[in-house]
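>> Question from a student workshop board

For tomorrow's exercise we were told to take the sequence and the ligand below, predict the bound structure, and bring the output to class. My setup keeps failing. Could a helper post the expected result so I can at least see what it should look like? The ligand is protoporphyrin IX containing FE.
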Amino acid sequence: MFFLAASISSTNILLILAIVALPLLCIEIYYRNKQKPHKLTKDGLRQAPTPRKLPILGHLHLLGGYEVPYQAFSALGEKFGNVVNLQLGNVKCVVLNGQANIREALVTKGHHFDSRPNFQRYQQLFSGNKENSLAFCDWSDIQKARRDMLKTHTFPRAFTNKYTTLEYLISSRTEAMIAQIEPNQTTELKPLILAHCANVFLSHFCTRSFESNDKGFIEMIENFDEIFYEVNQGHAADFLPFLMPLHKKNLQRMSKLTHEIRDFVEKEVIGDRFESFDVESEPEDYVDSLIQHVKCGKSPDLSWDSAMFALEDIIGGHTAVGNFLMKLFGFLVSEPEVQRKIQEEIDEAVENGRLVTIGDRNSMPYTEAVIFEAVRLIASPIVPRVANQDSSIDGYSIEKGSVMFLNNYDLSMSNELWDKPQEFLPERFIKNGRVVKPEYFLPFGGGRRSCLGYRMVQLISFGFLGGLMQNFSIVPVENESYKVPIGSLALKKDTFKFCFVRR
Ligand code: HEM
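>> Workshop helper replied:
Here is what the output should look like for this input. Compare the format with yours to find the bug.
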């Protein structure tokens, strides 16, 4: 799954300020943006406040200087209110703060805000057409069909065959990972985790798996990881297209990687399945569902090429889970007490030394809560939405085409909503021995564009975390820093070595 953090790094902002804004500032300091807060539009709606802006940059400079750019949105909310108009470069944007406003955009008026930004980078990353992407396309009948087709696979119902098979897959991959870990040694966990996640995904969606030393398989995983990292970066060029040439080389590289992925998936994952699929038979996996849709000419029309993009997006979901797990372990290595509590819970819930499985989730609320706490602290942004029509939020008018930043960072990290929000405290998700998620906790978005992979995240994370904690404690490696980057799911390739000590 390709993903957007929609963040613009401080370095980017400084660079742009240096090359573009400072000279302009010498000529003229500020555009006086005289728009008065709460001015009424002709529909009787209020006009959201707009901070003063700079020529060309608009308000881009306001996003610099924060560890996470979404913190800038919280600061803007405090200063100007919960709905703020911004001009980021040449893109009209709105920042929404507050649970009620975010819910209004996601759910109540979800159908007004179901498009995605039209950044050139995304067009280029998806062969010149962002509609090929599950996460960055605008809403359409095809997207609805793609989502419906996927749901049976990404949200398998408990006690069905699909669920039991997934449970088995996760357990066998967990066992294999445990066997590969050398106790008391420095362990490069990321390649191991990614490979096992990839095999869970490939087996579940495509009924195909690979040996962990298969060269093509390893290359595919590395390619996905590199693209995932790139897509999760925000760039000023998304708002200032004249800077795109700066990204040319990088985008060419991404294009090369996506072609390599396509080659591998076509040759090694699909093979002759398209030709040999019998359209009368029941689809057994996601690949079958796609082939059946295309071959039977079901409505809406989906070309095999578009279907391949959807498939690659979903196979790429393994990267999101793998990177998330790495961050989760990055938190846990500094939380021995949390590790001890998980282990205590496992020892109580799991009899006779068998491997912990996803079937144990109901009796292991603490372990489940650990996963939510990591998701909360990473505070990955909701993929920005775009207003597909003139609309309003909280009585403020929103112009068609506005890019909507829904500040779920604030919902995850606010001092008003959470006790000690900076601390890793899984207990906050447990009430009367059960896991309870507050309604303002929206890490997977909501409404018709909500995350399609969150159940996979929960299930695989539970199985892998449970299995590893059942067998090992994780301790820091000397001189390794465990500062977990927040505000995005992606983590650099060579990151976080751990030491696993057998229990
Ligand atoms: C911890 C990991 C993950 C987090 C925090 C996360 C979060 C999100 C969020 C916030 C959105 C945007 C929702 C919205 O606009 O309302 C999203 C969209 C999406 N996610 Fe995830 N996600 C994760 C993992 C995954 C995985 C593993 C998959 C694939 C199996 C996946 C598939 C998708 C897809 C396809 C979309 C786009 C849906 C659409 O636009 O219609 N995600 N995710």
